[in-house]
Protein backbone atom coordinates (compact mmCIF):
# COMPACT_ATOMS: atom_id res chain seq x y z
CA UNK A 1 0.00 0.00 0.00
CA UNK A 2 1.37 3.41 -0.96
CA UNK A 3 0.05 6.91 -0.40
CA UNK A 4 0.98 10.19 -2.04
CA UNK A 5 -0.22 13.23 -0.12
CA UNK A 6 0.44 16.83 0.83
CA UNK A 7 0.36 18.23 4.34
CA UNK A 8 -0.54 21.90 4.69
CA UNK A 9 0.66 23.68 7.82
CA UNK A 10 -1.99 26.27 8.67
CA UNK A 11 0.17 28.31 11.04
CA UNK A 12 3.13 30.51 10.11
CA UNK A 13 6.33 28.51 9.65
CA UNK A 14 9.25 30.37 11.20
CA UNK A 15 12.63 29.83 9.58
CA UNK A 16 15.96 29.81 11.40
CA UNK A 17 16.71 33.32 10.10
CA UNK A 18 13.47 34.65 11.61
CA UNK A 19 11.54 34.98 8.35
CA UNK A 20 8.17 33.27 8.03
CA UNK A 21 6.32 31.28 5.39
CA UNK A 22 2.55 31.15 5.11
CA UNK A 23 0.71 27.93 4.23
CA UNK A 24 3.75 25.68 4.11
CA UNK A 25 2.98 22.60 2.03
CA UNK A 26 4.96 19.36 2.35
CA UNK A 27 4.57 16.64 -0.27
CA UNK A 28 5.25 13.13 0.99
CA UNK A 29 4.81 9.46 0.20
CA UNK A 30 4.29 6.47 2.46
CA UNK A 31 4.58 2.78 1.71
CA UNK A 32 3.24 -0.09 3.79
CA UNK A 33 1.32 0.17 7.05
CA UNK A 34 2.11 1.31 10.56
CA UNK A 35 1.98 -1.80 12.75
CA UNK A 36 0.10 -2.15 16.03
CA UNK A 37 3.18 -1.33 18.11
CA UNK A 38 3.97 1.65 15.84
CA UNK A 39 7.61 0.60 15.82
CA UNK A 40 8.22 -0.15 12.14
CA UNK A 41 8.77 3.38 10.78
CA UNK A 42 11.60 3.89 8.28
CA UNK A 43 12.03 7.62 7.57
CA UNK A 44 14.10 8.54 4.53
CA UNK A 45 15.70 11.95 4.02
CA UNK A 46 16.42 12.54 0.33
CA UNK A 47 19.33 14.28 -1.36
CA UNK A 48 19.59 17.49 -3.41
CA UNK A 49 17.37 16.91 -6.46
CA UNK A 50 15.47 13.78 -5.42
CA UNK A 51 11.80 13.52 -4.46
CA UNK A 52 9.51 11.64 -2.09
CA UNK A 53 9.35 8.49 -4.24
CA UNK A 54 12.19 6.61 -2.56
CA UNK A 55 11.18 3.30 -4.17
CA UNK A 56 12.05 4.92 -7.48
CA UNK A 57 15.38 6.62 -6.76
CA UNK A 58 16.83 4.17 -4.19
CA UNK A 59 15.92 0.92 -5.92
CA UNK A 60 17.76 -2.10 -4.62
CA UNK A 61 17.64 -0.83 -1.05
CA UNK A 62 13.96 0.18 -1.01
CA UNK A 63 11.41 -1.98 -2.82
CA UNK A 64 8.98 -4.84 -2.53
CA UNK A 65 11.78 -7.42 -2.48
CA UNK A 66 14.48 -5.32 -0.87
CA UNK A 67 15.84 -4.73 2.63
CA UNK A 68 13.36 -1.94 3.29
CA UNK A 69 10.09 -3.22 1.90
CA UNK A 70 6.45 -2.15 2.42
CA UNK A 71 5.46 -5.63 3.64
CA UNK A 72 7.50 -5.24 6.83
CA UNK A 73 8.01 -1.51 7.20
CA UNK A 74 6.09 1.75 7.18
CA UNK A 75 8.32 3.82 4.92
CA UNK A 76 8.02 7.62 4.84
CA UNK A 77 9.84 10.00 2.53
CA UNK A 78 8.98 13.69 2.39
CA UNK A 79 10.00 16.21 -0.24
CA UNK A 80 12.19 18.91 1.30
CA UNK A 81 11.38 22.58 1.64
CA UNK A 82 12.47 24.45 -1.50
CA UNK A 83 12.25 21.46 -3.82
CA UNK A 84 9.88 21.55 -6.78
CA UNK A 85 8.29 18.14 -6.24
CA UNK A 86 5.24 19.37 -4.38
CA UNK A 87 6.67 21.12 -1.33
CA UNK A 88 6.66 24.91 -1.00
CA UNK A 89 9.47 26.28 -3.18
CA UNK A 90 10.53 29.40 -5.11
CA UNK A 91 8.03 28.67 -7.90
CA UNK A 92 5.14 28.40 -5.43
CA UNK A 93 2.65 31.24 -5.23
CA UNK A 94 3.39 33.77 -2.53
CA UNK A 95 0.08 34.18 -0.63
CA UNK A 96 0.92 37.83 0.02
CA UNK A 97 1.51 38.88 -3.61
CA UNK A 98 -0.38 36.21 -5.55
CA UNK A 99 2.73 35.71 -7.71
CA UNK A 100 5.52 33.11 -7.62
CA UNK A 101 8.31 33.87 -5.16
CA UNK A 102 11.29 33.34 -7.48
CA UNK A 103 14.26 35.10 -5.84
CA UNK A 104 12.02 36.66 -3.19
CA UNK A 105 11.80 33.26 -1.55
CA UNK A 106 13.45 33.40 1.90
CA UNK A 107 16.72 31.55 2.34
CA UNK A 108 16.51 28.45 4.51
CA UNK A 109 18.86 25.99 6.18
CA UNK A 110 19.16 22.27 6.82
CA UNK A 111 17.58 22.93 10.21
CA UNK A 112 14.54 24.37 8.47
CA UNK A 113 14.21 21.22 6.35
CA UNK A 114 14.25 19.17 9.54
CA UNK A 115 11.81 21.48 11.34
CA UNK A 116 9.34 21.07 8.47
CA UNK A 117 9.58 17.29 8.72
CA UNK A 118 9.10 17.47 12.47
CA UNK A 119 5.73 19.05 11.70
CA UNK A 120 4.90 16.26 9.27
CA UNK A 121 5.86 13.59 11.83
CA UNK A 122 3.56 15.26 14.34
CA UNK A 123 0.76 15.38 11.78
CA UNK A 124 1.20 11.67 11.01
CA UNK A 125 1.30 10.76 14.69
CA UNK A 126 4.82 9.31 14.47
CA UNK A 127 6.16 9.01 18.02
CA UNK A 128 9.21 6.86 17.26
CA UNK A 129 11.35 6.16 14.21
CA UNK A 130 12.87 2.70 13.88
CA UNK A 131 15.38 3.80 11.24
CA UNK A 132 16.24 7.31 10.09
CA UNK A 133 18.39 7.18 6.97
CA UNK A 134 19.84 9.63 4.48
CA UNK A 135 22.74 10.13 2.12
CA UNK A 136 24.53 13.35 1.14
CA UNK A 137 22.19 16.29 1.86
CA UNK A 138 19.76 13.66 3.15
CA UNK A 139 22.39 12.54 5.63
CA UNK A 140 22.88 16.12 6.77
CA UNK A 141 19.16 16.30 7.53
CA UNK A 142 19.15 12.95 9.32
CA UNK A 143 22.09 13.97 11.49
CA UNK A 144 20.55 17.33 12.42
CA UNK A 145 17.30 15.55 13.28
CA UNK A 146 19.16 13.06 15.50
CA UNK A 147 20.82 15.94 17.34
CA UNK A 148 17.67 18.01 17.89
CA UNK A 149 15.21 15.16 18.54
CA UNK A 150 17.40 12.46 20.01
CA UNK A 151 14.71 10.49 21.88
CA UNK A 152 12.53 9.68 18.87
CA UNK A 153 15.11 7.84 16.75
CA UNK A 154 16.22 4.28 17.48
CA UNK A 155 18.66 3.66 14.59
CA UNK A 156 20.46 6.33 12.56
CA UNK A 157 22.14 5.55 9.23
CA UNK A 158 24.32 8.27 7.73
CA UNK A 159 25.70 7.67 4.24
CA UNK A 160 28.33 9.82 2.48
CA UNK A 161 27.64 12.90 4.59
CA UNK A 162 29.25 15.18 7.19
CA UNK A 163 28.86 17.19 10.40
CA UNK A 164 29.58 20.51 8.72
CA UNK A 165 29.72 21.30 5.02
CA UNK A 166 33.33 21.79 4.01
CA UNK A 167 34.95 24.78 2.29
CA UNK A 168 35.56 22.37 -0.61
CA UNK A 169 31.87 21.49 -0.85
CA UNK A 170 30.83 25.13 -0.54
CA UNK A 171 33.25 26.05 -3.33
CA UNK A 172 31.65 23.45 -5.61
CA UNK A 173 28.19 24.82 -4.82
CA UNK A 174 29.24 28.42 -5.32
CA UNK A 175 30.76 27.50 -8.70
CA UNK A 176 27.39 26.06 -9.69
CA UNK A 177 25.56 29.17 -8.53
CA UNK A 178 27.99 31.32 -10.50
CA UNK A 179 27.11 29.30 -13.58
CA UNK A 180 23.39 29.82 -12.95
CA UNK A 181 23.81 33.56 -12.36
CA UNK A 182 25.56 34.05 -15.71
CA UNK A 183 22.29 33.08 -17.38
CA UNK A 184 20.43 36.42 -17.53
CA UNK A 185 17.05 34.66 -17.73
CA UNK A 186 17.56 33.63 -14.10
CA UNK A 187 16.48 37.15 -13.16
CA UNK A 188 13.56 37.28 -15.60
CA UNK A 189 10.87 36.07 -13.16
CA UNK A 190 9.76 33.10 -15.25
CA UNK A 191 9.50 29.38 -14.39
CA UNK A 192 12.10 28.31 -16.95
CA UNK A 193 14.53 31.07 -15.99
CA UNK A 194 18.17 30.12 -15.63
CA UNK A 195 17.94 26.73 -17.34
CA UNK A 196 21.09 27.21 -19.42
CA UNK A 197 22.90 28.09 -16.22
CA UNK A 198 21.39 25.08 -14.47
CA UNK A 199 22.67 22.84 -17.25
CA UNK A 200 26.20 24.15 -16.69
CA UNK A 201 25.79 23.81 -12.92
CA UNK A 202 24.83 20.17 -13.26
CA UNK A 203 27.90 19.54 -15.37
CA UNK A 204 30.07 21.00 -12.61
CA UNK A 205 28.26 18.95 -9.97
CA UNK A 206 28.85 15.69 -11.84
CA UNK A 207 32.59 16.17 -11.54
CA UNK A 208 32.19 16.06 -7.76
CA UNK A 209 29.74 13.15 -7.81
CA UNK A 210 31.82 10.79 -9.95
CA UNK A 211 35.48 9.84 -10.36
CA UNK A 212 38.27 9.63 -12.94
CA UNK A 213 37.78 5.85 -12.96
CA UNK A 214 34.05 6.12 -13.64
CA UNK A 215 34.53 8.36 -16.66
CA UNK A 216 37.36 6.18 -17.94
CA UNK A 217 35.12 3.13 -17.73
CA UNK A 218 32.00 4.63 -19.32
CA UNK A 219 33.10 7.51 -21.55
CA UNK A 220 36.39 6.29 -23.03
CA UNK A 221 36.57 6.58 -26.81
CA UNK A 222 36.81 3.37 -28.84
CA UNK A 223 38.80 5.04 -31.65
CA UNK A 224 41.93 7.18 -31.68
CA UNK A 225 41.19 9.63 -34.48
CA UNK A 226 38.63 11.89 -32.84
CA UNK A 227 39.33 15.58 -32.29
CA UNK A 228 35.83 16.65 -31.27
CA UNK A 229 32.39 15.34 -30.27
CA UNK A 230 33.78 13.24 -27.47
CA UNK A 231 31.57 10.88 -25.47
CA UNK A 232 32.44 12.59 -22.20
CA UNK A 233 31.34 15.94 -23.61
CA UNK A 234 28.05 14.48 -24.86
CA UNK A 235 27.49 12.89 -21.47
CA UNK A 236 27.89 16.21 -19.64
CA UNK A 237 25.40 17.86 -22.00
CA UNK A 238 22.95 14.99 -21.67
CA UNK A 239 23.01 15.01 -17.87
CA UNK A 240 22.55 18.78 -17.78
CA UNK A 241 19.57 18.64 -20.13
CA UNK A 242 18.09 15.73 -18.20
CA UNK A 243 18.05 17.74 -14.97
CA UNK A 244 16.57 20.79 -16.70
CA UNK A 245 13.58 18.69 -17.76
CA UNK A 246 12.69 17.80 -14.17
CA UNK A 247 14.01 20.60 -11.96
CA UNK A 248 14.32 24.38 -11.86
CA UNK A 249 17.22 26.75 -11.33
CA UNK A 250 15.64 28.53 -8.37
CA UNK A 251 15.12 25.41 -6.27
CA UNK A 252 18.65 24.30 -7.12
CA UNK A 253 20.05 27.69 -6.10
CA UNK A 254 18.31 27.70 -2.73
CA UNK A 255 18.94 24.04 -1.90
CA UNK A 256 22.65 24.39 -2.63
CA UNK A 257 22.72 27.27 -0.13
CA UNK A 258 20.90 25.12 2.41
CA UNK A 259 23.60 22.48 2.00
CA UNK A 260 26.25 25.13 2.62
CA UNK A 261 24.49 26.09 5.86
CA UNK A 262 24.93 22.65 7.39
CA UNK A 263 26.86 22.86 10.65
CA UNK A 264 25.64 20.97 13.71
CA UNK A 265 27.82 23.20 15.89
CA UNK A 266 26.02 26.44 14.97
CA UNK A 267 24.50 28.06 18.09
CA UNK A 268 25.79 25.13 20.12
CA UNK A 269 28.96 24.89 22.17
CA UNK A 270 30.84 22.97 19.46
CA UNK A 271 30.48 20.46 16.64
CA UNK A 272 31.87 17.71 18.86
CA UNK A 273 29.46 18.54 21.68
CA UNK A 274 26.55 18.52 19.22
CA UNK A 275 27.49 15.06 17.93
CA UNK A 276 27.62 13.82 21.51
CA UNK A 277 23.89 14.57 21.78
CA UNK A 278 23.03 11.76 19.34
CA UNK A 279 21.49 8.87 21.27
CA UNK A 280 20.49 6.61 18.37
CA UNK A 281 22.35 3.44 17.44
CA UNK A 282 24.38 4.92 14.62
CA UNK A 283 25.93 3.49 11.49
CA UNK A 284 28.12 5.76 9.39
CA UNK A 285 28.93 4.64 5.85
CA UNK A 286 31.64 6.35 3.84
CA UNK A 287 32.85 5.94 0.27
CA UNK A 288 36.64 5.79 0.17
CA UNK A 289 37.01 7.64 -3.14
CA UNK A 290 34.22 10.19 -2.59
CA UNK A 291 35.50 13.53 -3.89
CA UNK A 292 32.67 15.66 -2.48
CA UNK A 293 32.32 14.10 0.99
CA UNK A 294 35.78 12.62 1.68
CA UNK A 295 36.06 9.59 3.95
CA UNK A 296 37.69 11.70 6.67
CA UNK A 297 34.32 13.38 7.20
CA UNK A 298 32.61 10.06 7.96
CA UNK A 299 35.51 9.05 10.21
CA UNK A 300 34.96 12.27 12.16
CA UNK A 301 31.27 11.45 12.59
CA UNK A 302 32.00 7.92 13.77
CA UNK A 303 34.68 9.12 16.18
CA UNK A 304 32.39 11.63 17.90
CA UNK A 305 28.89 10.09 17.81
CA UNK A 306 28.69 7.87 20.91
CA UNK A 307 29.00 4.19 20.03
CA UNK A 308 28.81 4.79 16.27
CA UNK A 309 29.96 2.10 13.85
CA UNK A 310 31.86 2.98 10.68
CA UNK A 311 31.83 1.04 7.42
CA UNK A 312 33.85 2.02 4.36
CA UNK A 313 33.09 1.00 0.82
CA UNK A 314 34.83 1.63 -2.48
CA UNK A 315 32.89 2.56 -5.58
CA UNK A 316 34.04 3.53 -9.04
CA UNK A 317 31.08 5.93 -8.99
CA UNK A 318 32.48 7.95 -6.09
CA UNK A 319 29.86 9.97 -4.20
CA UNK A 320 27.05 8.63 -6.40
CA UNK A 321 27.94 5.18 -5.11
CA UNK A 322 25.51 5.72 -2.23
CA UNK A 323 22.69 5.47 -4.78
CA UNK A 324 24.22 2.74 -6.92
CA UNK A 325 26.00 0.23 -4.65
CA UNK A 326 22.74 -1.01 -3.14
CA UNK A 327 23.84 -4.66 -2.83
CA UNK A 328 26.77 -3.62 -0.64
CA UNK A 329 24.59 -1.22 1.36
CA UNK A 330 21.96 -3.92 1.87
CA UNK A 331 24.55 -6.26 3.37
CA UNK A 332 26.10 -3.61 5.63
CA UNK A 333 22.84 -2.07 6.82
CA UNK A 334 21.08 -5.42 7.21
CA UNK A 335 23.89 -6.72 9.42
CA UNK A 336 23.91 -3.53 11.49
CA UNK A 337 20.17 -3.66 12.11
CA UNK A 338 20.30 -7.33 13.15
CA UNK A 339 23.08 -6.56 15.62
CA UNK A 340 21.15 -3.55 16.88
CA UNK A 341 18.04 -5.68 17.42
CA UNK A 342 20.08 -8.33 19.28
CA UNK A 343 21.58 -5.69 21.57
CA UNK A 344 18.09 -4.40 22.31
CA UNK A 345 16.90 -7.90 23.26
CA UNK A 346 19.90 -8.44 25.53
CA UNK A 347 19.30 -5.08 27.19
CA UNK A 348 15.64 -5.90 27.79
CA UNK A 349 16.57 -9.24 29.38
CA UNK A 350 19.06 -7.53 31.70
CA UNK A 351 16.48 -5.00 32.86
CA UNK A 352 13.68 -7.56 33.24
Automatic annotation (TrEMBL):
Enzyme Commission number(s): 2.3.1.31
Record-linked InterPro entries: AB_hydrolase_1 (IPR000073), AB_hydrolase_fold (IPR029058), HAT_MetX-like (IPR008220)
First-tier enzyme category under EC: transferase
Pfam families per record: Abhydrolase_1
Key words of the record: Acyltransferase, Amino-acid biosynthesis, Cytoplasm, Methionine biosynthesis, Transferase
Chief location category: cytoplasm
Family named by the database record: Belongs to the AB hydrolase superfamily. MetX family.
Domain AB hydrolase-1: 41-323
Function according to Swiss-Prot or TrEMBL: Transfers an acetyl group from acetyl-CoA to L-homoserine, forming acetyl-L-homoserine.
SUPFAM superfamilies: alpha/beta-Hydrolases
Gene3D superfamilies the record matches: alpha/beta hydrolase
Pathway membership, UniProt: Amino-acid biosynthesis; L-methionine biosynthesis via de novo pathway; O-acetyl-L-homoserine from L-homoserine: step 1/1
Name of this chain's protein: Homoserine O-acetyltransferase
Organism, scientific name: Pedobacter ginsengisoli
Residues forming the catalytic site: 136 (nucleophile), 290, 319
One record GO biological process: methionine biosynthetic process
Gene: metX
Annotated positions binding substrate: 202, 320
Domain of life: Bacteria
Quaternary structure note: Homodimer.
Reactions catalysed: L-homoserine + acetyl-CoA = O-acetyl-L-homoserine + CoA
Localization terms from the record: Cytoplasm
GO CC terms, sorted: cytoplasm
